[in-house]
Design a protein that fits this description.
single chain, alpha+beta, 2,3-Dihydroxybiphenyl 1,2-Dioxygenase, domain 1, eleven-stranded mixed sheet, 4 helices, globular, Methylmalonyl-CoA epimerase
């Protein structure tokens, strides 16, 4: 037990008094070649993959380090139980994903948490209050908000939160890899209230 009053209280074997992140919901690999990375993960039994492009046609409110930004990312999703596995390949424009590739090469770049499904504004404010400013954000289909915070220096990785509104319907992906699920079997619906 620590006598340091600046440290949170341990409430249980899995809980601290200052917890707010909630459930781990996603892990993301950043790559220079999304197809090669999907192929490798499929060989490990992870898939099928849904492939989208996040750009000016699909994402509103795109920001990078506090300013409006024009960026595009190839984004691929597969589900492993309750966890989303994501692949991101930066296509153009400024992004923390390209920064990661330049500094570290390919690998796990971020993890995402549901932040106990707190209202969207409270999530960003809580990260900021703890000293982790917003570094990249946007709204896929003008509905699914996502935000990344500057946690890498403190934790070794970037933390994200996103909010998929109740009733949000994902558009059909640009492609399924290696193939779509059998007819009548839709992918899991990930919903989070904002």
């Amino acid at each position: 037990m620590s006598d340091d009053p600046s440290l949170p209280t341990v409430l249980s074997a899995t809980t601290l008094s200052n917890g707010f992140l909630g459930k781990l919901i996603e892990i993301c690999f950043v790559t220079a070649d999304h197809r090669r990375t999907m192929e490798g993960l499929v060989r490990l039994g992870i898939g099928p993959w849904r492939v989208y492009t996040f750009d000016s046609a699909t994402v509103t409110g795109r920001t990078y380090r506090g300013a409006d930004a024009d960026y595009a990312i190839k984004v691929c999703f597969a589900d492993v139980g309750d966890l989303a596995v994501e692949i991101m390949e930066p296509l153009y424009g400024p992004s923390i994903f390209q920064e990661f590739l330049d500094a570290h090469g390919e690998g796990i770049q971020h993890v995402a948490f549901d932040c106990e499904e707190r209202p969207w504004e409270q999530r960003a404010a809580e990260f900021e209050r703890r000293g982790f400013p917003l570094v990249q954000s946007g709204r896929f289909m003008d509905a699914n908000a996502f935000a990344f915070f500057d946690t890498e220096a403190a934790t070794g990785t970037t933390f994200e939160t996103y909010s998929i509104p109740t009733g949000f319907v994902w558009p059909e992906p640009e492609e399924w890899y290696p193939a779509p699920p059998p007819a009548g079997q839709a992918p899991p619906v990930r919903e989070q209230r904002h």
